[in-house]
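ingest -> fold -> write
write: protein_1
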Amino acid sequence: MNYMKGILGAAALLLLPNLSGCTSVFGDVQNTINYALQTAKSNDSDLSPADIEAFPYSAQYIRRDGSNRVLVVLGYIDTVGTEKQYSWISRDSITVVTENGRVIKTLGQKAEISAAKLGQHDLVYVNNRENDPLRCIIQSHTNNSTCNTRWERQIDYVDRDRQRSENVVSEFRIVSGPEPMGFPSGEFTVYHVVETGHFTASGVAFENDFYIEADGHVARSKQKILPENEYISLIQVKWVGRDSAGAQ
């Protein structure tokens, strides 16, 4: 596992030799993140430019299922093969994992089973990620002339404590760019990549948006990760040590 220097501070980094197998260590990370969020305004969904400048961690705004947007902090980076997976953690302990800007896993989401019971409602796994055209577009720095435009994959997920699988088919195109776009920390030049597709069993259609800087950094996205869910939206607030981080 590879951890970004300065993300959680030296003390927290010393506690992270094997996060995936240690609940108490994850608790230390969560405590650090909670402290970071508490140092920001109580309304952490609307940090001012001064707040962002003073905030010491990489962070994004996230909006899930039409709810109010909240701040999520980069907790750790896990290297899997040649790819980096970024785990973004919220104040309420929900984790969203991204790879090349795409959400590939969630942990801690809940959905109502009945008036008295909530069940797990998480994306567990996405296969065939090595053939994701978004990965090719990012790694070719938006020069997508050699990238496939069609992608098929299977997702595994838990829907209110029930295990499910679904095949997904989508197509990609760069629709605009480079063009300026405003972000909480300033203005950046981005390319707009659109992914249109559907979940084959349920027939649910979607249109995902990815806004990518020329160096392959995904700065903003809107993604439908499960057929039953509304879209997840992510927008970069601050990236610490970006030069050594690559795409998120």
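write: protein_2
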Amino acid sequence: MRATTADTITGTLAASHLTGTLNPGLLASGSIAATLTFSGAGVPFAISNASSPVVTNLNADKLDGLDSTSFLRITGGSLTGSLDVQDPTTLNFGNVTRQMLNLYNTDYGIGVQTGTLYQRSGSDFSWFKGGTHDDNANAPGSGGIENMRLGSTGSLYLLGHKAGVNVQNRTTAGKQWATYAYDGATGDTYRIWSNLAGDLLTLDESGALTTTGKITAPAVSASTYSLVCQGRLFLRHHDLLYCYDIRR
């Protein structure tokens, strides 16, 4: 026979010997010196307080060998290391319009307006190819190239060798046009190009204009055409060409 009050149990206590609810009042202050092992397949213990399902004063700092500060809070909290989003995981920001990402305070960020995706900058936008991070403005870093920049005043800069704007024909996808600056052996030139005929018009640093075709002058009358070039007025009347210096 065992005492119903003070007593000591040594050895293994079979689970079948414990039935019903163990009143916490029977466990006075103290500690369990040995390791407590939960061998069941389910959760080790259940909490019946549905309105506040927590274990009061449970020290979980070393739960599973991890410190509680290693976990990111659902509300608030900060990451001190890198976050890898592995396939097939995605980041979802819901369907409410706002600035979702603040990259450097709220002055630099990405957000969504009604029907619009926007990017915000306190000054410039730059697009780099290759390179590494550099704190200096518009600097692509070691080995990098700045291909394009949108300045704070709204000016768009297309940079790099043969930088230009390519335009596809509205009605024929196979026809394309481009305008670009070219730093060649004979100096800088500005060109208009077609994928069907190559460079059609070239303007060099001296102001000389070269075309692979002809320039059609606007008609003054049915038989007279005029063209102003380098401060001179050229008039063509029938088969005669007249040149007047209009630089004053």
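write: annotation protein_2
The chain is about 0% helix and 35% strand.
The chain has a mean pLDDT of 78.
pipeline exit 0
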